[in-house]
Design brief:
Elements (H helix, E strand, L loop, with lengths): L8 E7 L3 E8 L4 E2 L4 E4 L6 H13 L9 E5 L3 E2 L2 E2 L14 H9 L3 E5 H12 L8 E7 L3 E7 L2 E3 L8 E2 L2 E2 L1 H4 L1 H6 L4 H19 L3 E5 L19 E3 L6 H12 L15
Parallel strand pairs: 1-5, 5-8, 9-14, 14-15
Antiparallel strand pairs: 1-2, 2-3, 2-4, 6-7, 9-10, 10-11, 12-13
């Protein structure tokens, strides 16, 4: 990684149900400092098996032992501990992700919910960069992930994909998977999104809404159909958002709760 100041590098790891991806991140720009590495998630995806795979990903990069590692995880992550398990083995519940992986890797580790990491990445380096006030990040995919960042401070585990709206769990009506499964037109799906985002606006009064997930690349087909008080914009970092956000949070040493500093200004 010649040409990069290693003091401004942190490693981001994105643990998903099908793949474990990682890359070192230049915290001054939010760009990858080396090509991303992806290894399939082991099956069954037990803590020990995943830890070995994460170690493989980390080992593929030449990094100093004190390089912080940020890990996104598909669960509620409270002070480094998994409190739920989505698309990974149920044995993760109650596991201290940070302790397990720091021992396996020999690096300091910060663990964070995957939507939280993506939202924070967008605030620092993406579509919400420079935005002040309340930013709401939503990811539309198999389900709906959400993250809330208030004046640059991440509010952890702010899961609003399962809000009950009109008697339905929101993501069972408005996720991208439902659009595909029910063969909804963009206009039909936008009606459901309008209802969902309208409720979120009335609850939170966000200053900006960022929409991520794979479908965001088709944003021009549905975002213009929404009529909200706040601007609603597509995510910019795409699939890199989780890795970038996790790396930034790791550099700050804060898995949850108030985030004290912006890594772009703390060298």
């Amino acid at each position: 990684m010649s040409g990069h100041d290693k003091t401004s590098i942190a490693l981001g790891i994105d643990i998903g149900g099908s793949g474990i991806k990682g890359a070192p991140v230049d915290l001054t720009t939010g760009a990858f400092a080396a090509d991303r590495v992806r290894i399939p998630t082991p099956q069954p995806s037990t803590p020990a098996a995943v830890a070995r795979t994460v170690a493989q990903v980390v080992g593929s990069f030449d990094l100093p032992a004190d390089t912080p590692v940020g890990v996104t995880f598909p669960a509620v992550v409270q002070h480094g501990v998994a409190r739920s398990a989505a698309n990974v083995d149920v044995s993760w519940i109650g596991t201290n992700i940070e302790l397990l992986l720091s021992e396996a890797l020999g690096h300091p580790v910060v663990a964070v919910n995957d939507a939280d990491a993506a939202g924070y990445g967008e605030v620092l380096y993406g579509a919400a960069r420079g935005s002040r006030g309340v930013t709401l990040m939503t990811t539309l995919g198999t389900g709906i992930g959400t993250a809330l960042i208030v004046a640059g401070v991440l509010v952890p585990n702010f899961e609003l994909g399962h809000l009950t709206i009109d008697g339905y769990d929101a993501e069972t009506r408005a996720s991208d998977a439902v659009r595909d499964r029910e063969n909804l037109s963009w206009e039909q799906w936008a009606e459901r999104l309008q209802r969902y985002y309208g409720v979120l606006e009335d609850l939170l009064w966000p200053d900006l809404i960022v929409v991520g997930g794979g479908v965001s690349k088709n944003y021009e087909k549905f975002l213009p159909l929404l009529h909200l008080r706040a601007p609603i914009v597509p995510a910019q970092l795409r699939n890199a958002a989780g890795i970038v956000g996790a790396a930034a949070l790791a550099a700050q040493g804060a898995a949850s709760g108030p985030v004290p500093a912006d890594p772009r200004t703390s060298a």
